[in-house]
Design a protein that fits this description.
By secondary structure, the chain is α/β, with parallel strands linked by helices. It has helices at 2-34, 47-60, 73-82, 96-99, 142-150, 159-162, 185-197, 199-204, 221-231, 241-246, 266-273, 313-328, 344-354; strands at residues 36-42, 64-70, 87-90, 106-120, 139-140, 176-180, 217-219, 235-240, 253-255, 261-262, 299-307. GO terms for molecular function: phosphate ion binding.
């Protein structure tokens, strides 16, 4: 009787162990089903807004973790082509040639927009903390800012700058241009604009995510240019509006096609984008030199690039859910960070295209 009892007892213990393992397995499987991680990389232009979105979205959806690395539009597109990320971001979308390399197909979704500003530092020494007695929005004519980037205007008290800023005591300070070293959608948008307004720029430098700059020092990402402009007396560089505002850098009022000097704001950039019609087939379009009298001259959408097909249906659905949230709830925090909320028309277009993401 004792041996039989002991045998039954051991059998019961083994049954409980097996049951426990099964329960643990079910729990783990349940967690795997409910939890998903997505990885993206690309443009630094929208990075401050994306960071806010991903934090807010994770708080509301703790089972979804989305990580984004701001490595530049060009590098982001290459990662998408290689299949090493779940999504990418680019300020110039994606070309047909690049899209043809993605076997799973590509969908480009405008999620936000912003302006590219010329931020500057007119302190005369590195120790100065303010730019006293100088306006926060120096006026730069189309010829002036093109010639600065061509290396033809090399000092801040140059007559071409002075004539647009009467009464301003411009410092006798060398200009130090700061430009991107990485493959950058921001660079592409800026050089598209400069090529549109200057035949000399078009012939000497041209358009591209990377170009042979005539002058200046390089930095990586919008954050890199912002840091160098802050550090170098006399510096000027091009960054997304949010970077300049968050770091309290003065920005130039640029002359537009109508001859008006326009200070960059979300409102003036929104006027520019009102004239852009996104084609139904890929939702990618640019305006290189807007004609609106009150339009800021350099503004653009920035695109989230997803695969058309995902091998993992959970990832596909998680990404679709996030995109829909960004198009509706996410737009509410755009203005706060210096970005331009999408129009209702663009939101509807993007929602329609996002439905094509499949598993």
């Amino acid at each position: 009787m004792s041996a039989q009892f002991e045998s039954k007892r051991l059998a019961g213990v083994l049954s409980l162990i097996v049951l426990g393992l099964n329960i643990a397995s079910c729990t783990t499987d349940s967690k795997n089903v409910k939890t998903v991680s997505l990885v993206g990389a690309g443009a630094s232009f929208p990075a401050p807004l994306y960071e806010r979105w991903l934090s807010d979205y994770n708080q509301q959806n703790p089972n979804v973790e989305i990580n984004y690395q701001a490595i530049g539009s060009g590098a982001g597109v290459q990662q998408l082509i290689k299949g090493t990320v779940d999504f990418a971001a680019s300020d110039v979308g994606i070309t047909n040639e690049q899209a043809a390399k993605v076997k799973r197909g590509v969908i480009a979704l405008p999620l936000t927009a912003g302006s590219i500003v010329l931020a500057y530092n007119l302190t005369t020494t590195a120790r100065q903390s303010s730019q006293a007695n100088l306006p926060n929005n120096l006026k730069l004519s189309r010829q002036a800012y093109t010639d600065i980037f061509l290396g033809k205007i090399t000092n801040w008290n140059h007559p071409q700058i002075a004539v647009a800023n009467p009464g301003v005591n411009l410092p006798d300070l060398p200009i130090q241009v700061v430009h991107r070293t990485d493959s950058s959608g921001t660079t592409s948008v800026l050089t598209q604009h400069l090529s549109a307004i200057s035949p000399e720029w078009k012939s000497k430098v041209g358009v591209g995510k990377s170009v042979a700059w005539s002058v200046g020092v390089g930095a990586k990402g919008n954050e890199g240019i912002t840091a160098l402009v802050q550090q170098i007396p006399g510096a000027i560089g091009y960054v997304e509006y949010a970077y300049a505002i968050q770091n309290k850098l003065p920005v130039a009022a640029l002359e537009n096609k109508s001859g008006n000097y326009i200070t960059p704001t979300p409102e003036s950039a929104a006027r520019t984008l009102e004239t852009v019609k996104l084609p139904a087939d890929n939702l990618i379009a640019f305006i290189t030199d807007p004609i609106g009298a009150q339009s800021y001259p350099i503004a653009t959408y920035t695109w989230l690039l997803t695969y058309r097909q995902y091998q993992n249906p959970i990832k596909a659905q998680a990404l679709k859910n996030f995109v829909n949230w960004a198009l509706i709830e996410g737009q509410k925090s755009s203005l706060e960070l210096g970005y331009i909320p999408l129009s209702k028309e663009v939101v509807i277009q993007a929602q329609s295209v996002a439905k094509k993401i499949t598993e």
